[in-house]
Amino acid sequence: MAQYFSRRNLDFLLYEVHHATELTKYPYFEAHDRETFGMVLDSATQIADTIMYPHYRDVDRNQPELKEGKVTVHPQIKAFLRAVGEGGLIGAGFPFEQGGQQLPELIGSCVSFIMMAANNGMMYIGLTSGAANLIASFGSSVLIDTYVANLLNGTWQGTMALTEPQAGSSLSDITTSAEPRADGSYSIKGQKVFISAGDHDAVDNVVHLMLARIKGAPKGTKGISLFVVPKYRLTDEGTLEQNDVTSTGIYHKLGQRGTPAMHLTMGENDDCRGWLLGEPNRGLNYMFQMMNEARIGVGMTGAAIASAAYYASLEYAKERPQSRRLNEKNLLDSPQTMIIHHPDVKRMLLFQKAVVEGSLSLLMESARLSDLVRVTEGEEKENNELLLELLTPVAKTFPTEMGVRSVSEGLQVLGGYGFTEDFALEQMYRDIRITPIYEGTTGIQAQDLLGRKMTIKGGKAPQLLFAEINKTLAAATTYETLKPYADKLSRELRRLHEVTQSLLPFAAEGDYERYLMDATLYMELFGIVTVAWQWLKQGVAAQNALLTRNPAGEEAAFYESKLHTMKFYFHYEVPKTLGLATRLQDTEVLTIANDQTVLL
Amino acid sequence: MAQYFSRRNLDFLLYEVHHATELTKYPYFEAHDRETFGMVLDSATQIADTIMYPHYRDVDRNQPELKEGKVTVHPQIKAFLRAVGEGGLIGAGFPFEQGGQQLPELIGSCVSFIMMAANNGMMYIGLTSGAANLIASFGSSVLIDTYVANLLNGTWQGTMALTEPQAGSSLSDITTSAEPRADGSYSIKGQKVFISAGDHDAVDNVVHLMLARIKGAPKGTKGISLFVVPKYRLTDEGTLEQNDVTSTGIYHKLGQRGTPAMHLTMGENDDCRGWLLGEPNRGLNYMFQMMNEARIGVGMTGAAIASAAYYASLEYAKERPQSRRLNEKNLLDSPQTMIIHHPDVKRMLLFQKAVVEGSLSLLMESARLSDLVRVTEGEEKENNELLLELLTPVAKTFPTEMGVRSVSEGLQVLGGYGFTEDFALEQMYRDIRITPIYEGTTGIQAQDLLGRKMTIKGGKAPQLLFAEINKTLAAATTYETLKPYADKLSRELRRLHEVTQSLLPFAAEGDYERYLMDATLYMELFGIVTVAWQWLKQGVAAQNALLTRNPAGEEAAFYESKLHTMKFYFHYEVPKTLGLATRLQDTEVLTIANDQTVLL
């Protein structure tokens, strides 16, 4: 079987960079140690190797279909859901008392990474665990008893049902309505689109975590409530009956074809019931818990597909002879060289590796922060929360936007073969393209970063981030070999700070349109710097291991490769900030205007 | 019908920027004027509108299949080939005496643009005209009489048959063999892969322009000859008989599915005959004529798909309401705004437009040079040739690499809908991805640019280019509004020159591996500057029209839009040179090494 991720790299990031075992010092995680973490990763790898990876292509080739109101998915999906359900992987992060394993999200994020790298078409369980988590967090004991266990054992599917035909990025405009009924439930009416895993035959029930507006609620986001709307509702006798949720359409997609994206209609026969989760009109606040989880999950999907693409390209480049090295062009009698020896190919591969491992490290940083939010208190907890909030849009965007580019470079490594269905790259190229769109497009994430996260609490979040980065800079400066890179990153931090300062006056004046005009470029700049930090962090760990442990053979090569890729990132990717900063400080306004004539 | 290109823009580029009518002063083109040019473009548009565009999606959905040795393509392909054959469009650029219209390539390139924007899956006729042109240029009168007319009327298909399984980018390694026969023809044996339009049922014969090695020929590229190898050969009685060319495989591809890519086997039964074109061992020289045409043709395909994507995104953005403007977020009672009013969306659209119209202008510059090569003599001709040779890899690469990115931004404009098959963007995203691979990957083009074109004849080609750019700078400087942009471009030229100077010593030392290590980044830098020149040229023409013709209404808006997009290109795209130049002048070598450990 071809490689699609590196366990050695996961272990490096877990234990040498992000110090996963430190989490076990907190009482909540004290049942765990490196051994239990390893067992979970082994179990995920086992399922990924046997049930997921072998079906990567045929899940794509046999996409879900909607016929006579029924959605049929690839039979392997059911096997997969049973395996992860029985293996306890859906609810691994849940508390023991809810049937979970109290596993850190840091480990859970690695489980997602492994599985999405093996077969991202099986994008089902993040939605289920997110939905279960929302119910567990805000639901009544009746709701919890009814839903959580069935979700976590993989027999029921969870979804997030936000988007409506007229309200995609603009949740304030959703119109799905909820009217109170005498029995305490609500009568739901409306339509939702793009509901991933929104209906399928691999489970016995589908449980939608749905945003709707209670009749008479305030306009805008302050009038949105969150409901549990199952496909089948429980009768008083404990049996399941139809809940008037109809699959009215299925989207055929460019990629990620293993998971159906549904158009759902609720209440066609005035018989769709929903159960309010938490308080009325606070639905969007609750939903943000799931959305933030999902954003990091989508970032992880980007990193995972990019990982699978990297190893596929690397394998090809090591085995494909073509041409001679540039200084040996005239040696026609010599055999052709493997293309990995061509600098241009090596550049593309190093780019892929730098994106994959830099993204993964950033995502693990975020996952670790969410663990710390859970186990810390007071100001410490608040700081962890702020930092996580700041990093979430970045951890969603960098791995997906750069993932798209890295998979494209991976396809390019294969030349004409990369464009054919004989190799997996073309599918990865299709699959990953949704990730900068899912759960808030890059533009939305960028507005969240610059428009909200940079300014909340008087700009405390970036201060916290800079403090964290300064810790890494201090550590790096103790190594002669890393000092030049620490200096580079310091310069980048100053540049980022200057750019931010040049923009903030627009926000202060209330001119948000001007302030956020180039937020997407700001996000790109911010992402490059943040991942440079993650690479320096990896550099410190690698340099430290080389000096203190004196490894040999493959182990030494692993650490040398880390340092090499860190250097690559600094020399090839970081300079892109120059152009971005120039544009962001440029005073020419070209994208704000009422008239459309500029686009004739 | 949705718009897929702008005739107004084509006319602007043809007559106001590239002065197409000036060509008609040369005797070879004297039969033409703006009216005949317009008729040809009308005729192409008519075919594109009625026969091509309406089948864009179903040609993709019903891809060619190989069954029992026969390749079936979509029935519309035959209608298309008949129409362009009868309309004289395949051979429009051929001399009158060969049945052509002696039309400038500048106009021919616009015909390709229109057709590839309408339906790039019908990528057949550029291959046919290229093959016919090779035969007309280097063939005996017998070969010309046998093939040219049937190719130009669309009943026979031409191909370029270069690539072999073991020789893609490395043509010196091709092994298809040719053994002289008593009758003057050659016995051909070997395999070719990725032969576009290499076999199909919409024509009566397929004529391969094939590279092969005559037994005993020198090794490497100096032993390659060019043959005409038809699927069916003419008997002495004038009938067609099988020529032992077998379709052994068909590639299923990510995109451009309308055109089959074939794996062909020649001489399985020792009965495949080829006819030598020109002299033995000079085949690659001849083939470069077709390859250079094809490279510009692929660049044009990139620009054309990007054009279709731009208009599709623009239409969506004008009609899709979502959210409110950023300074009106709280006006929940107001209707949602069209997304074109969001700066981030407008930025993406302006990026698309800047790529499409900048690429198209560069391609037309190249086409005009090929016309001048034909009609000029002596030093003038030589200079035109040198400049065309320099621009060819750039005109192939910028429109394709940036085209891929611009179509991706176009898909992003549609959000989730862009990822579905309900809109055409997902197909365009798939279709365009081959263009940075076809006819020499971006890496190969970059090596051609830096490794060959920058240094031939003592570096005369870039001198000629800089002289041309200086003419535009001089013209721009006469307008107060354009002077800042002329200054920007001057600075970019100096930067490009400095970068080049910093690299040339490696070539002088014979260290080509180091010299070309980052050639792809050099290409990116070179492309940005070259297209900045094309945008300034368009700016000069637009500013001139605004000042001298005092246009109103839509005409004024057209020119204002040109100036606006020029500004966008300079403010958003040109700053990318900063990072590229920094990397290219950086002394750290990270992609040259014998060991593979850096990629663990």
TrEMBL record, chains A, B:
Species for this entry: Salmonirosea aquatica
A molecular-function term among this protein's GO annotations: oxidoreductase activity, acting on the CH-CH group of donors
Highest classification ranks of the organism: Bacteria, Pseudomonadati, Bacteroidota, Cytophagia, Cytophagales
Key words of the record: FAD, Flavoprotein, Oxidoreductase
Protein name per Swiss-Prot or TrEMBL: Acyl-CoA dehydrogenase
Residues annotated as domain Acyl-CoA oxidase/dehydrogenase middle: 160-266
Names of the cofactor(s): FAD
Family per record: Belongs to the acyl-CoA dehydrogenase family.
Top-level taxon of origin: Bacteria
Keyword tRNA processing annotated: no
Annotated ranges, domain Acyl-CoA dehydrogenase/oxidase C-terminal: 281-449
InterPro entries: Acyl-CoA_dh-like_C_dom, Acyl-CoA_Oxase/DH_mid-dom, Acyl-CoA_Oxase/DH_mid-dom_sf, AcylCo_DH-like_C, AcylCo_DH/oxidase_C, AcylCoA_DH/ox_N_sf, AcylCoA_DH/oxidase_NM_dom_sf, Diverse_Acyl-CoA_DH
